[in-house]
Amino acid sequence: MTEIRFHGRFGQPVGKLVRALGKYALSQGRNVQVFDAFAAYRPGAPMYSILRISNESIRARSANNTRPDMVIVLDNSLFGVADVTKGLKSSGQVMALGVGEEVLGDKAKGFRFVSLEPLFKEGANLEANFINLLTKQDLF
User: Fold this and answer.
1) How many angstroms separate the CA atoms of 113 and 52, rounded?
2) Which residues have CB under 8 Å from 15's CB, separation 6+?
3) In this structure, are strands 70-73 and 93-96 parallel, antiparallel, or unpaired?
4) Which of 9, 19, 78, 90 has the lowest tally of Cβ within 10 angstroms?
5) Contact of 6 with 17, CB cutoff 8 Å
6) Is 55:30 a contact under the CB 8 Å cutoff?
7) Are 4 and 34 in contact (CB under 8 A)?
8) How does pLDDT run along the chain (140 residues), one tens digit per residue?
């Protein structure tokens, strides 16, 4: 099972993106789970969504205390207010657009940082770009 946690802010298309990726994974014959986690319905509030993809049946049933293989940060201001690496496996990777590895500070040890900058151009289709990215990671 591969677990990916997407971080963003309420009002951004975090949930929509994760559900689109989940639908695509289902169309490829994978087993999928999607969870949205947010505290308040107010614009700008931090939130995250979990995407689990597996060739086998997924038995985990909670979005609490996750152990993601990958964390994708869609709003870079979250690096300063949330622990986006919480629970990330030691061999995990953090992906973000417009920032470098230095935003992780001391937490960068043990994690691989991948800049999304080369993959995303302004006006690009976000869902299609993430499908291509995760296909290259052999998730679909």
Assistant:
1) 20
2) 36, 47, 49
3) parallel
4) 90
5) yes
6) yes
7) no
8) 999 999 998 888 888 999 999 999 999 999 999 998 866 677 788 889 999 999 999 998 887 778 999 999 988 888 888 888 899 998 899 998 778 777 777 766 778 888 887 777 666 788 888 888 888 888 77
